[in-house]
Structure formats: C-alpha cells, structure tokens
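Section 5.1 Outputs to date
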Amino acid sequence: MKELFENTTSATIAKRLAELTEESALPATGKVLNMIAVVSSHAEVSEAIDLCAAASAEHPCRVLVVVSTEHDVCSGLRAELHYGPEMGASDVIVLDAASCAPDSLDTLVIPLLAADTPVVTFWPFSAPAAPALHPLGRIASRRITDSRQSATPFEFLRQLAGAYKPGDTDLSWGAVTLWRGLLAAMVDEAQTAQFDTVRVVGNPAHPAPYLLAKWLQLKLGVEIEFIEAPVKTLESVALLNGAKVYEIYREDESSVAVLRRPGLVDTKVNLPRRQLHDSLMEDLRLLDEDQLYSEVLALCL
C-alpha cells in the first residue's frame, strides 16, 4: 500500500506510523536497523527503493529514501509511505526534501527513525567525500558509499581515505569479498606468505580490482603488478613464488573460476559476480568498524 502526504511535517508522518502500528498494518517489532538512502533526484528513487528492499529481505528495517538537492530554504515537505505484505517486515518512507536546506536533513529524519535501532546511511549514487560530516552521516553508525558511481572513482577513494571515520565503508570493497576468501585459502595452502610477485589482471578504471590489489599489498608486503584487461572488473590474480604459480582465473561473463596450483589439476569453484544488493547486505551484517577496510583505504592516499 502507498499513502501520499503533501506539504506535511515529520511529526504528521510519525503520528501516522504510530496509528498504522496500533492497527497492526505495520509490524511493531522485528526491525534490526534504520536504513537511510540519500539520492539527489526523483529519477533515482525507484532504484533506491528496490535496492533497499532487496537488502531488507535479510535485514528487516525502516527505510527512509531522502531526495536532497541544494536549496537555501525549506518551503514544504512531500512524502510517500509504502507498507503492507509486499514489504514484509519493513516499511519505506520517501521524503521529498528537495526544497529543504541540506543542514536540516537530520532534524527532518530523526523523528521518523525506529527507536533504539542502529542507523545506516547509504548513498547508492553520488556521495559526499566526507560521509561522516554529512548531516545524515553524523547520525549513523554505518555509512556506505559506492565509489563505482563516481566519475573519478580513484580520486573519490583518496578523498574517502583522507576523511575516513570509523563506520565508513564502500561497496566496491564488498565486491571483492569472495575473491579475498579464495586468495586467503590459496595462501594458506601454499604454506608461505612470501611471494616474489603478485599479478592482478583487471579493469583499470574499476575501483574493486584496485582495492583488492591494495589488500594484497597490505597482507603480503609485496608490490603488485597490475595488468589492464578489457573486462568488467577482475579477470585473474596470480601469486608467483619462484617457478610456482598460484592463480585464480575467471572469464568475464562466467560465474565459475579456475584455481591453478603447482602439482594439482585445475579446480573449478563458484565465483559469481556480486550484485549490488549482495554487497549491501554484507555491509549491513557488520555495523562496527571495518578495521581491515580502513587499513586498505589508507594505502589509497
């Protein structure tokens, strides 16, 4: 179901939420977090709702989609409230705050948050370079950006590194989680952390291979050789120790990778390309500081 509110206030919307809870139209319990998705245009709202709804299947939450653009005065508020069986244990509030001053967004949102529940602020498209200083970032324990949406992702990562605060993370980091798991297992199997060379083959314009290379540099203490390839993200990672080569290779459109190890036959393993909501769901599982991400990000400076 959907209800529309014209020229309204946060107090009016909060009162309606309380009424719907009393009527059992909204679940009184079960939400594990508040998720604020910040977008800059109405064209981005539908995709933001779909993305948050997919993540809320694992993490029931109150979703607030805030449409925010640069304006000096607040002349009114338009809102939409989505709820019902199709939303499961979650509900979605869309706030058209385009006419509101950015510095007032926190006071707009706070009355609508589920009480005693962690707050996550997510920028699915354009994001500030200092998320913790944004009004909706200051009230969150977790702040999620996506450097892949930036026109200059590597410069954006450097800006994120310079402004990093505990709780910050980026979806391009979650995009390489499966690769990191396989590589960690490969290093354990090799029974050495001393490699002569590490070779990463991937898209030079994509931040995920770049962050993976920085992680390998951090963990193995070796400079990384990056080879450009016309692929979407990553094609392969090879760890070279003398004549021994340990490699993970995945064709661009495949969800299966090949493990190549000295003295063993090639092994196929499942390595699907992660969808955006997969990385988002992973980040929502960890609301504390991601210390490893902060160390890898620091190498981007």
